[in-house]
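Question:
Now give any protein.
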Amino acid sequence: MKRLIRLASLPTLSVVALGLGLAVSAPSYAQKSLELDQLMQGKASIPQLSFADLVEEVSPAVVSIRTTRDVQSRTFDDLPPDLERLLPGLRDRFGGALGDGQRRRATGEGSGFFINDQGHIVTNNHVVQGADDITVVLTSGEELVAELVGTDPETDLAVLKVEPSSDQRYVRFNTSANLRVGDYVLAVGNPFGLGGTVTSGIVSAIGRDGGPNTTYADFIQIDASINRGNSGGPTFDLRGNVIGVNTAIVSPTGVNAGIGLAIPADVAATVTDQIISTGSVTRGFLGVLVRDPEPQILSAVGLETEGGALVSDVTDGSPADDAGIEAGDIVLELNGEEVADSTALTRKVGAMSPGERVRVKLFREGKTKTVRVELGRRELERTASNDMGNGTSESQTTEQLGVSFQSLDEAIRRRLGIDDDVEGVLVVDVKRDSEAAAVGIIPGMIITQADYQ
């Protein structure tokens, strides 16, 4: 009989009142003095807050994930012809040989957790992206070969499948957590490959923006310590339910600085259910380019309410175009729900299914108008960012990864034949024994993403 992890009882706080006379029969002065002496000498029992029972219940559902993939080292002949003129002495720095062109194995680590008795495991997309082999390591040390069911890069989520034992524990998403800033949380995962590690903290913010490529999920900010390897692990409430999936940190150094970001449980549950059912995620498509309307625009068009999403362009032949939506319209409501801003509109549409008919309330030329739109299917269109991660300087990055970068200015683009629409930084040097060299990063590469940003 497979077991669902049961709800752990809440830890209780006991208060020791010394000398306050709170009991029905007030203790004598001598009795109170004796209690105080015992407490000071360490002989009295001191009640304390502990997460031990909770950790004992949930930790068997959390796993470590190991990945391997083939990486082919490149030779000098693979580099752009102008790179050596741009970076003189390149061959000398690498002893005359950049690589032998052979394929080698690169490894990675992360975390995940069981969500049902069928062996489905949730983790981050960036943990398993590009992996040739995926291994799941249980708390017992047992290793299981995992199958990749599907991924959703838009929310950085992925689902794996293994053959579990009959008594494998699993946990559930709390999709109605109603979190508040200040709520206690626990993060469980595999930081730095250490295996099961538990840290505690509080919810320090809700609805946090995660930066580029996170259109369809805002984040829960927690101060429980998470580091490299925690990615894909769960954040629990004090009842043992998952309220978030750890996915990123905000840090100038690349290690924990007290700001961790977790994908909310309601988003994760919806995405993973769809991946399990169909192997992929589909989202509704409206076909408009929107932005937040400035207050002066709202005032100029005579709209007294704040919020909404200003349509700046409409895609030809799109559902919005067919329904008569025009550039300059301000979207106020979707199916009767207010649209707070452009991001809210994008997320609302993305949460709907292709083919679904929706009511869109618009403001145009001083009047409101409602149109009906049959949503299309949104195709995956991702844009790389040149943000290297919260202001990390070149010297810090070089020290941590063994890589030096240079901005893509017009001269470099012209010499190396790099298109104007390519955003990122140029790798100009790589230390031979660094982590970057081990995974195949070489001078001449353009880095367009770092840690999902």
Q: What stands out?
A: The first helix runs from residue 29 to 40. Residues 1-26, 381-397 have pLDDT under 50 and may be disordered. The CA atoms of residues 223 and 258 lie 5 Å apart. The longest strand covers residues 103-114.
